[in-house]
Structures are given as C-alpha cells and as structure tokens.
Amino acid sequence: MASGASQQTQALTKPAFTEAQASALVESVFGFKVSKIQPLPSYDDQNFHVHISRTEDAADDPTECVLKISNTETSKNPDLIEVQNGVITFLKAAGFPTASLCHTKEDNLTSLVSIDTGSGTRSHLLRLLTFLPGCPVAQIPISPQLLYEIGRLAAKLDKTLETFHHPKLGILRRDDFIWNLKNVPLLEKYLDALGQNRNREIVEQVIQLFKKEVVTKLSHFRE
After folding, report:
1. Mind telling me which SUPFAM superfamilies this protein's record contains (predicted)?
2. pLDDT 10s digits, 180-216
3. How would DSSP label each residue in 137-185?
C-alpha cells in the first residue's frame, strides 16, 4: 500500500489495466498460459486472480495465482517491494500459510512495465504470487475460538518477525504511512468522510486519546 495520499492522488496513480492486458502480461512476463482472469479487490494497487493452464512439461507450475500491479508511486521504490518479498519468503520458510513468489522468464521476482496512457507513460512493478484459497473473516460466523485462533496466529507472526533481518528494512519506517498504527493522528484529515454523526464523534475521541496517551509515550514502546 502507498502512503497517506489524497483520494485524488490515489486515483491518478492506481493502475487501470484491463483483464486482457493483465492476461497478456502474465503470459509475456511470467510465461504462463492464462485460462481465466478476474479482478480482485484492491486499495491503491491492482490485483487479478489468474487461472493457469498447465502443460505436461510444466506439471509443477501453479494452477492459480494473483497478479499484483503496484501503483506508480510504489513502483518508483523497488527496495520497498524487495523487503516485502523478503518478508513473504521468510514467513513461508517459517511455516506460515503464505503465498509463494513466482519468477519471471528472466528469473526475477519483479518486472517493471510501462504503459502508454494516451497522455504519457506510466511504469508499474509486477509480481505474481501463488493464490491462497480461503474465506474472509467478515463472511463467516465469529466465535470465541475463531477470535482466539486469529489472536494466536497474530502473536506467532509478531514473534517470528522479530527475527527477520534485511539490509533495507529501514525503508518500512515511513512517517507519512497511514497504515502504521503509530500514525493514527494522520487520520484527522479524513474525518470529513464520516459526515456529522456519532461515528465521527467516537473516531475524534479515539484520535485525541491516542495523541494524549500514546504519542507522548511512543519512545517507550517496542516497535
């Protein structure tokens, strides 16, 4: 995900590839024959669920993948993608149910492609990952046991990542990244999206409480 840019900036930088274009990229960049492709939800990148046609001489190839096309801003920062890929590989080796990264025909994990938009050229980083079947938690009944399992997995993930090392790890520390929990105050600029209602009052209270009770003590917390 990109930094806390405005909705207008996100609209300008988010990829807008058609299914036909995405299918052609999978075949030309990664060498897989696509039998079916459909869009997946995304924030400021673009994702596609890709079904791969297997051949007899490629029986070990994945049958389903996710094509991830990064927005133009993230695509200017390949080191960030490199660290993300490192985390994915690290967690996979540690036994977590994570996706695997697919190599390009040139044996790379990413590929930078350019597209003519009619008003200029935009470049986007591509990645292809194996597809993990499953169901979003929001679509299934919640139980205490399920919440326990989620919490247990999150704690195990957190403890495991304490041992992750990468020479470019510092690139993840982005002061303007709204998805970093320590940057809760940055959400104030989006309060208008809530209108004038009780939900807005609650959010405002939480942000002010965070600024008073958490921000002042951030240096004492493990990161």
Report:
1. Protein kinase-like (PK-like)
2. 888 999 999 999 999 888 889 999 999 999 999 999 9
3. GGGS---HHHHHHHHHHHHHHHHHHTT---TTGGGG--TT-TTSGGGGG
33-47, 62-76, 107-121: least confident range: 107-121
Residue-wise pLDDT tens digits, 88-102: 999 999 999 999 999
Collapse the DSSP code of 63 into the 3-class scheme (helix H, G, I; strand E, B; otherwise coil) and give the result: coil
The predicted model scores a pTM of 0.81
Backbone torsions φ then ψ of 181, nearest 5 degrees: -60, -25
The two three-digit tokens of residue 45, written as one number: 């990148």
What are the structural domains of the chain? 19-139 (3.30.200.20), 176-218 (no CATH)
